[in-house]
Amino acid sequence: MVFAGIALVLTVIACAIANPKKEDKCQLPKMSQQELIKVVVTEFRGRGSDFEPTSENARFDFAEKECDHLVRITFLPERPGGFEIYRISRDGKIVEYIPGH
User: Fold this and answer.
1) Total domain count for the chain?
2) What strand order describes the sheet that includes 58-65?
3) Model pTM?
4) Are 74 and 61 in contact (CB under 8 A)?
5) Which residues pair with 96 in a beta bridge?
6) Is residue 23 situated within a structural domain?
7) Among 24, 52, 53, 97, whose CB has the most other CB atoms within 10 angstroms?
8) pLDDT for 45-75, tens place per residue?
9) Higher pLDDT, 10 or 77
């Protein structure tokens, strides 16, 4: 399943590079990486976790799909299933969550 998550992120990034949009048809502006991280940390806290991501314990990868953002967090040190993928709308709502397996 680790490979499925990696493949998803790489596919979305490759498609975005191969098919650059000439015009942004989305109604809301893009969120910054810091705003996206804040959404993920807020989700962690909502589940009762006090996890605070740093460069020592997590790596974030970002991509876009349609008008949404994809955020992949890999927990460090890396281990099988040690990741989560979030699809976040431009208004900051998590619309899809894929846990690592």
Assistant:
1) 1
2) 58-65, 68-75, 83-89, 94-99
3) 0.75
4) yes
5) 87
6) no
7) 53
8) 999 988 888 889 999 999 999 999 999 999 9
9) 77
